[in-house]
Design a protein that fits this description.
single chain; about 250 residues; alpha+beta
Amino acid sequence: MLEDKESFSIEQDLEGWVMDKCDNWRDHYEANYSDKFEEYYRLWRGQWSSQDRTRESERSKIISPALQQAVESSVAELEEATFGRGKWFDIKDDYMDKDQADVMMLRNHLESDFKRNKVRKGVAECLINAAVFGTGIAEIELSTEKEFKPATQPLMDGELTAVGVNIVDRTCVKLRPVMPQNFLIDPVATSVDDALGCAVDEFVSRHVVEKLQEQGVYRDVELQEAQQDFDIEPDHDIQSIYEEDKVRLTKYYG
């Protein structure tokens, strides 16, 4: 604990302390899990690599689809067990409350929001990642979107009626799956609650950050082009990396 305080005082800024932690967590991930997770991904996608050869004289590049079929069949069964009955979640009321109508209304409203924000699609992708890598990770995102609602308004003392739309701000809660190479966490923690912190490290489009800068979420500073880093790319087997109009964004939670 004393060493952490001394390190924080020497660096004199929160940004340096956070990035130092993220770099250490990234080194731990690459040293212990990166190679295995890349192998799991290749076998699932049916991509051949010389690293997967069992002997030096092996010349065959055929990847059997049996593993991919087994993973997708298992995930399909999980999705059917989760979403197959229609109501895939429930809200329980306080046992002292005899009126259940308020909770039913909240559940129906939450179900409508889940459909509008495509939460079920995010859960399904998390199940795929969990089946391939052993862990499903998702990030809860809060955003504000413009919602257009049909509306009418009386004019000229009710003689005429104007038909149009009302624009209102709506708060959206979305579930965004995160690949294992883009997620950093305290290595000695057993859960997110026990960890010192966690981070999502990935490439995003430049216009996404610029939009958040205009909204006041991020400081209005000049954005620099991101350097190449194959370790956090969504697909490690791509031949060329798109370098324009993208920045590296690290979001720390702790």
